[in-house]
Design brief:
Layout: H1 5-14, E1 28-29, H2 30-38, H3 47-58, E2 66-68, E3 72-73, H4 82-99, H5 106-120, H6 127-141
Antiparallel strand pairs: 1-2, 2-3
Helix pairs in contact: 1-2, 1-4, 2-4, 3-5, 4-5, 4-6, 5-6
């Protein structure tokens, strides 16, 4: 089964709230941030923000709907809904696809976090398509196939 990844990103983005403007030191609302990434408003997918989200997934083993300044947990902490997690996974995989050529391990870190995020949200929409994309990227990082 072949999936148009551009269309997949569009589909997942359409289920998220509109992008909201936030200050550098202000709260981070994950849904609108991910929508901005997927809609191309931040084509570079800021590595520091991606790294912060990867840490939340890898270390804290969760994706929250919102974080405080500096990516700190808010109280009460609310888990991101499955649709937001799926879109976040797509953003991580999109960034990984762009990073494969760098060969510095960044793509592998992104794919690893994406797969862990899918494990945290087993009901995430389009989970099988996202997992297939992740496997293709793992093959590409190992030099076994195209992205």
């Amino acid at each position: 089964m072949t999936v148009d990844r551009t269309e997949l990103c569009r589909e997942l983005s359409a289920n998220l709230p509109d992008a909201a403007v936030r200050g550098i030191d202000g709260p981070v609302v994950v849904g609108p941030l991910v929508r901005a990434w997927l809609d191309g408003h931040d084509a570079a997918l800021a590595r520091d923000e991606l790294d912060a989200l990867c840490r939340q997934i890898d270390v804290r083993k969760r994706v929250s709907a919102e974080y405080g300044p500096g990516w700190k947990a808010v109280d009460p902490e609310v888990a991101a809904p499955p649709a937001v997690v799926a879109a976040l996974v797509a953003a991580l995989l999109l960034a990984a696809q762009r990073a494969v050529a760098s060969g510095d391990g960044w793509a592998l870190k992104l794919v690893n976090s994406a797969l862990k995020a899918l494990d945290l949200a087993p009901d995430a929409p389009r989970g099988p398509a996202l997992r297939a994309w992740a496997v293709d990227l793992l093959d590409a990082t190992a030099g076994w196939g195209p992205t």
